[in-house]
Amino acid sequence: MLVLLLVAGFLGAAAGEGAAECLCLAPDSPLLAATQNALPSQYPAGYGQGCKAHDGGLKIEGCLGGAGAVLPYYCSASWCYIDPEVCQENKAICEAAGSVLGSSASPFCRSRPMIQSYIVSDVEAFINASDSSSGVFLSYETCGFQNKYDDNFLSSRIAGRHMKVSIPGVDVNPWIYKGEISGTDKSRKWEGNDGILVDMVDAILRTPDPKINLSLSDNFASQSSSALFPLSSYSACCLDVAVGTVDMCIGDFWVTSERLAMGIDFLYSYSTDNMMLLARNTEKPPTLGDILRTPWQPFSSELWGTIVCYVLVVSAAVTLITDSGNEHDFVSNRLVSRWMKAAWLNSMGFVSRSIKNNPKSTPARVAAFGYGFFLLVTLQSWTAALASTLVARNANYGIRTFQDALDRNARICCLQSISAQMKATWPRGTYVITPDWLDMFRKLTLDKCDVALVSESEIPMAMSGAYNKLSCEKEDAGEEGWEQGASGCERHVTGEPSTTRDCRQFRNTGDIVMQIPFALPAAALYAKALSVEVVRYISDGAFDRSRAAHMDKVVPKSACGVRLESSMKDTQLGLDDMSGTIITAVLFQILALLLWALESYSGKSVAQLVGLEATLEAHHCDLINIGPLGHVGQAPDVSVPSAPRTHALDTHTVHAAATLESQNGNNNFSNSMGFYGDNREDMPLEKEELGHVPQL
């Protein structure tokens, strides 16, 4: 046999056409002669010999058109007949040549796609005449062209056939749902079923000429298949396709490893499903203590203590050493008063991010520069840390990612159809298997799961209250396993099912755990031809138009008023985040108002009230002698000229007089002193008006 194959290979090589691993039959090949004899009479001599567009101009192949006619691709595509035994890989000959399959060391180590010719009707007669073990085969690919003829032929093979289709009876989603039977042919044919997939399948079944006839199965899945897949009616329907009970199942089917292992074909994938992580909402509103602690959280208590100590030490250094002669900032000569003033200025500088004192000496300016650098680094660090703290706090409630769920050993609700894939990918997960979405949300409600893997398209259903309503209906119907307390049904005080159960209890973490392709399972006879039509349907934009129409029509609105929070919202700062800072600032303003009221009521400054500053009477007791009734008396060793003078009182005298007036209730003191305010302090004062005033 090896010798025959080698001889055939050399004969093909002599023809010199086609790829080395799949050469065209040579003109003198007995196999080509037998092929020519088996062709119908409508085909010319030399048809299929060598790489050539053999169908060009042939009416029987649909390639005869007038000027400007658009002909099928295959009309201009080159191909030739080949020997399938030579064209396919042969491991024995390949290894005899010292190589392995897939290499280019020998033509028998590689191959090219080939198809059987369908125009030779009597294959058995051809085999007997050609001494071949198979029928007539050809290859477009060996001539450098794609096989588009096969697509057209596949459509002709299924044209006019009767196709049995199975449809789920309970799904209410945009993919497929039960509607009312109207007067249209489509509605009657589909028995009122409608949706994105109904539109698509109806369109692709009309493409073959004549179109494919449709009949709907009575049950979505047979009893025998359901017994083998009790937790997934979708997998059971796939098995029905595999064994030939139905030709196609229509629904939002996932292409999973379990279903591929059945050996069934899927049409071209029309979409992809995002599997989102849904978690129980364990977030609690912050307490007043949490709110007030927020602006202080960026720094530890040790760091805050260090900052306070640094400010006080710098204030003492400025007062005692670097700027001790600064009379502009420090009027008082009392050490404690000067230190408190320095601490106040530095504290104001800290919260306002600037230097508030006015250093006079060079050492003081150097110290101010150092303090400014301290403010720059510290406050920028505080700002960055506060932002990180606020964002981290929002992202720190409950389980946020699938990895987080694994690390916490959380119970993960998972549909049976993807459980095998989940366990293989993340074997250390703790999985709770559920048959459908309704049971999954029931288990979440009853705290039998901590998180769940939910299709992104199912989340709006849950947030509309649809699943809670279905749970209540099963409870009302008295279905086994759905009794009160076990159904997860939540009702209003009126007895009506709650529409906000799921949106209050669960939250979408925004974490996409996996992506699973959607596709329709179909019998092998239909799979390839209909896949081509699915691609055309999507490329023409018909799928997107149908999707938009049914999404607006069917997808329910969230009863919560807003969509579930996502990872983007987790990074937003709300009023609660900044309320601690706002409240703290307001408390300081309230304290300032209270101190102002205290000063207004007492007539003394806060510094005087706490003893940090002497009263003006004591400060100026050596200037003015106060009489028992509050009149200005004669000071010892002080004489006043009898003649009028225009000497202006200095600021200390005027303020002392004002203080005396306020404290002794002498309402006429300002007039008797000739005090008219700062703008009139140069007014001439007469001796009779002043009485005895010390010589200044």
Task: Give the topology, please.
Elements: H1 2-15, E1 18-19, E2 22-23, H2 30-38, E3 80-82, H3 84-87, H4 91-96, E4 115-116, H5 123-130, E5 137-139, H6 149-158, E6 162-166, E7 177-178, H7 185-189, E8 193-194, H8 196-205, E9 213-216, H9 223-228, H10 233-243, E10 248-249, H11 257-260, E11 265-266, E12 271-280, H12 288-293, H13 301-322, H14 335-352, H15 362-394, H16 402-407, E13 411-415, H17 416-425, E14 430-434, H18 437-445, E15 451-455, H19 459-463, H20 466-477, H21 501-505, E16 506-518, E17 521-522, H22 524-539, H23 542-554, H24 567-570, H25 575-602, H26 606-609, H27 616-619, H28 651-664, H29 669-673, H30 687-690
Parallel strand pairs: 6-9, 6-10, 13-14, 13-15
Antiparallel strand pairs: 1-2, 3-5, 4-5, 7-8, 11-17, 12-15, 12-16
